[in-house]
Protein backbone atom coordinates (compact mmCIF):
# COMPACT_ATOMS: atom_id res chain seq x y z
CA UNK A 1 0.00 0.00 0.00
CA UNK A 2 1.35 3.39 -0.88
CA UNK A 3 0.42 7.04 -1.07
CA UNK A 4 3.58 7.75 -3.04
CA UNK A 5 2.15 8.74 -6.35
CA UNK A 6 0.91 6.78 -9.28
CA UNK A 7 0.82 3.09 -10.09
CA UNK A 8 1.68 1.78 -13.55
CA UNK A 9 -0.59 -1.15 -14.45
CA UNK A 10 0.60 -2.97 -17.56
CA UNK A 11 -1.35 -5.57 -19.52
CA UNK A 12 0.85 -7.71 -21.74
CA UNK A 13 -0.12 -8.82 -25.21
CA UNK A 14 0.79 -8.61 -28.88
CA UNK A 15 -0.41 -5.71 -31.05
CA UNK A 16 -3.03 -5.81 -33.78
CA UNK A 17 -6.35 -7.54 -34.49
CA UNK A 18 -4.72 -10.91 -35.28
CA UNK A 19 -3.71 -11.35 -31.63
CA UNK A 20 -6.46 -9.37 -29.87
CA UNK A 21 -8.46 -12.41 -28.67
CA UNK A 22 -5.60 -14.85 -28.04
CA UNK A 23 -4.67 -16.36 -24.70
CA UNK A 24 -1.38 -14.47 -24.72
CA UNK A 25 -3.36 -11.19 -24.75
CA UNK A 26 -5.43 -11.74 -21.60
CA UNK A 27 -3.37 -9.07 -19.77
CA UNK A 28 -4.19 -6.50 -22.46
CA UNK A 29 -7.87 -7.56 -22.32
CA UNK A 30 -7.96 -6.77 -18.59
CA UNK A 31 -6.50 -3.29 -19.30
CA UNK A 32 -9.29 -2.68 -21.85
CA UNK A 33 -11.84 -3.69 -19.22
CA UNK A 34 -10.24 -1.49 -16.52
CA UNK A 35 -10.26 1.52 -18.85
CA UNK A 36 -13.94 0.92 -19.67
CA UNK A 37 -14.89 0.47 -15.99
CA UNK A 38 -13.17 3.73 -15.08
CA UNK A 39 -14.66 5.72 -17.99
CA UNK A 40 -11.23 6.03 -19.51
CA UNK A 41 -9.93 5.82 -23.04
CA UNK A 42 -6.62 4.31 -24.07
CA UNK A 43 -4.66 6.65 -26.36
CA UNK A 44 -1.27 6.47 -28.02
CA UNK A 45 1.46 7.87 -25.75
CA UNK A 46 3.78 10.48 -27.24
CA UNK A 47 6.97 9.12 -25.66
CA UNK A 48 6.49 5.34 -25.67
CA UNK A 49 5.25 2.62 -27.98
CA UNK A 50 2.12 2.07 -25.92
CA UNK A 51 -1.48 3.06 -25.34
CA UNK A 52 -2.17 4.61 -21.96
CA UNK A 53 -5.12 5.75 -19.90
CA UNK A 54 -4.58 8.00 -16.90
CA UNK A 55 -7.32 7.34 -14.37
CA UNK A 56 -8.04 6.79 -10.69
CA UNK A 57 -8.93 3.46 -9.14
CA UNK A 58 -10.50 3.85 -5.70
CA UNK A 59 -8.98 7.34 -5.59
CA UNK A 60 -5.44 6.18 -6.44
CA UNK A 61 -3.74 7.65 -9.50
CA UNK A 62 -3.27 4.78 -11.96
CA UNK A 63 -1.76 4.70 -15.42
CA UNK A 64 -3.16 1.81 -17.44
CA UNK A 65 -0.76 0.60 -20.12
CA UNK A 66 -0.95 -1.62 -23.19
CA UNK A 67 2.44 -1.87 -24.90
CA UNK A 68 2.11 -1.70 -28.70
CA UNK A 69 5.34 -3.64 -29.14
CA UNK A 70 5.40 -7.40 -29.54
CA UNK A 71 5.43 -9.37 -26.29
CA UNK A 72 9.19 -10.02 -26.38
CA UNK A 73 9.86 -6.26 -26.59
CA UNK A 74 7.51 -5.13 -23.79
CA UNK A 75 10.33 -3.93 -21.56
CA UNK A 76 11.18 -0.82 -23.61
CA UNK A 77 7.71 0.79 -23.46
CA UNK A 78 7.24 -0.15 -19.78
CA UNK A 79 10.61 1.30 -18.79
CA UNK A 80 9.96 4.48 -20.84
CA UNK A 81 6.57 5.01 -19.15
CA UNK A 82 7.87 4.28 -15.64
CA UNK A 83 10.52 6.94 -16.27
CA UNK A 84 8.05 9.41 -17.84
CA UNK A 85 5.55 9.12 -14.97
CA UNK A 86 8.27 8.70 -12.30
CA UNK A 87 6.75 5.46 -11.04
CA UNK A 88 9.04 3.42 -8.77
CA UNK A 89 9.60 -0.24 -9.64
CA UNK A 90 7.58 -1.46 -6.65
CA UNK A 91 4.50 0.42 -7.96
CA UNK A 92 4.46 -1.39 -11.28
CA UNK A 93 1.90 -4.16 -11.77
CA UNK A 94 2.19 -6.48 -14.76
CA UNK A 95 -0.82 -8.56 -15.83
CA UNK A 96 0.11 -11.60 -17.89
CA UNK A 97 -1.09 -14.98 -19.10
CA UNK A 98 0.06 -17.99 -17.07
CA UNK A 99 0.08 -21.55 -18.43
CA UNK A 100 0.71 -23.11 -15.02
CA UNK A 101 -2.57 -21.82 -13.57
CA UNK A 102 -5.96 -23.24 -14.51
CA UNK A 103 -8.21 -21.13 -16.71
CA UNK A 104 -9.89 -18.26 -14.83
CA UNK A 105 -7.75 -18.63 -11.68
CA UNK A 106 -5.51 -15.74 -10.57
CA UNK A 107 -2.35 -15.53 -8.51
CA UNK A 108 -0.75 -12.34 -7.21
CA UNK A 109 2.95 -12.11 -6.43
CA UNK A 110 5.85 -9.72 -6.04
CA UNK A 111 9.15 -10.43 -7.76
CA UNK A 112 10.34 -13.72 -9.15
CA UNK A 113 11.66 -15.04 -12.44
CA UNK A 114 10.10 -15.02 -15.89
CA UNK A 115 9.20 -18.74 -16.10
CA UNK A 116 9.91 -18.68 -19.84
CA UNK A 117 7.45 -15.83 -20.46
CA UNK A 118 8.98 -13.52 -23.08
CA UNK A 119 7.08 -10.43 -21.91
CA UNK A 120 8.30 -10.83 -18.33
CA UNK A 121 11.81 -11.60 -19.58
CA UNK A 122 11.84 -8.34 -21.58
CA UNK A 123 10.62 -6.23 -18.64
CA UNK A 124 13.08 -7.90 -16.28
CA UNK A 125 15.88 -7.16 -18.73
CA UNK A 126 14.83 -3.51 -19.23
CA UNK A 127 14.87 -2.80 -15.47
CA UNK A 128 17.64 -5.28 -14.63
CA UNK A 129 15.30 -6.44 -11.85
CA UNK A 130 12.23 -8.58 -11.27
CA UNK A 131 11.07 -6.59 -8.25
CA UNK A 132 7.60 -5.57 -9.40
CA UNK A 133 4.10 -6.93 -8.86
CA UNK A 134 2.59 -9.56 -11.13
CA UNK A 135 -1.01 -10.59 -11.53
CA UNK A 136 -0.84 -14.02 -13.13
CA UNK A 137 -3.96 -14.76 -15.18
CA UNK A 138 -4.56 -18.48 -15.59
CA UNK A 139 -5.02 -19.74 -19.15
CA UNK A 140 -4.37 -23.42 -18.41
CA UNK A 141 -2.10 -25.88 -20.18
CA UNK A 142 -2.51 -26.93 -23.82
CA UNK A 143 -4.41 -30.16 -24.45
CA UNK A 144 -2.48 -33.29 -25.41
CA UNK A 145 0.85 -32.69 -27.13
CA UNK A 146 0.06 -29.18 -28.40
CA UNK A 147 3.06 -26.86 -28.30
CA UNK A 148 2.60 -24.20 -25.57
CA UNK A 149 3.95 -21.48 -27.92
CA UNK A 150 1.21 -22.37 -30.42
CA UNK A 151 -1.42 -22.66 -27.69
CA UNK A 152 -0.90 -19.14 -26.29
CA UNK A 153 -1.33 -17.62 -29.76
CA UNK A 154 -4.71 -19.30 -30.27
CA UNK A 155 -8.01 -17.63 -29.53
CA UNK A 156 -9.95 -18.79 -26.51
CA UNK A 157 -12.54 -21.43 -27.40
CA UNK A 158 -16.17 -20.30 -27.62
CA UNK A 159 -16.94 -22.77 -24.81
CA UNK A 160 -14.55 -20.81 -22.55
CA UNK A 161 -16.30 -17.44 -22.99
CA UNK A 162 -17.84 -17.43 -19.50
CA UNK A 163 -14.52 -18.25 -17.83
CA UNK A 164 -12.69 -15.61 -19.89
CA UNK A 165 -15.26 -12.97 -18.91
CA UNK A 166 -14.82 -14.00 -15.26
CA UNK A 167 -11.02 -13.82 -15.60
CA UNK A 168 -11.23 -10.30 -17.04
CA UNK A 169 -13.55 -9.13 -14.24
CA UNK A 170 -11.46 -10.75 -11.51
CA UNK A 171 -8.29 -9.35 -13.05
CA UNK A 172 -9.76 -5.85 -12.65
CA UNK A 173 -10.76 -6.58 -9.06
CA UNK A 174 -7.29 -7.96 -8.28
CA UNK A 175 -5.66 -4.75 -9.56
CA UNK A 176 -7.95 -2.62 -7.38
CA UNK A 177 -7.30 -4.84 -4.34
CA UNK A 178 -3.53 -4.82 -4.84
CA UNK A 179 -3.11 -1.06 -5.25
CA UNK A 180 -5.57 -0.07 -2.51
CA UNK A 181 -5.19 -2.81 0.10
CA UNK A 182 -1.69 -4.12 -0.56
CA UNK A 183 0.02 -7.34 -1.59
CA UNK A 184 -0.94 -9.48 1.41
CA UNK A 185 -4.64 -8.64 1.08
CA UNK A 186 -4.54 -9.38 -2.65
CA UNK A 187 -2.74 -12.69 -2.10
CA UNK A 188 -5.23 -13.67 0.59
CA UNK A 189 -8.10 -12.87 -1.77
CA UNK A 190 -6.74 -14.59 -4.90
CA UNK A 191 -4.02 -17.12 -4.08
CA UNK A 192 -6.12 -19.59 -2.11
From TrEMBL:
Keywords: Hydrolase, RNA-binding, tRNA-binding
Keyword Hydrolase included in the entry's annotation: yes
EC numbers: 3.1.1.29
Keyword Acyltransferase: no
Annotated Pfam families: Pept_tRNA_hydro
InterPro entries noted in UniProt: Pept_tRNA_hydro, Pept_tRNA_hydro_CS, Pept_tRNA_hydro_sf
Gene3D superfamilies listed in its UniProt record: Peptidyl-tRNA hydrolase
Transmembrane segments: none
GO molecular function, one term: peptidyl-tRNA hydrolase activity
Annotated family: Belongs to the PTH family.
HAMAP family: Pept_tRNA_hydro_bact
Protein name: peptidyl-tRNA hydrolase
Organism: freshwater metagenome
Amino acid sequence: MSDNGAWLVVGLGNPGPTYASTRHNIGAMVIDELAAQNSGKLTRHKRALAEVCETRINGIQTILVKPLSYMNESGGPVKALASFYKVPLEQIVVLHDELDITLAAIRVKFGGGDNGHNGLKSIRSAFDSGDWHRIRLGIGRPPGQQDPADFVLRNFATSEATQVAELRTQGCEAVACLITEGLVAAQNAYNS
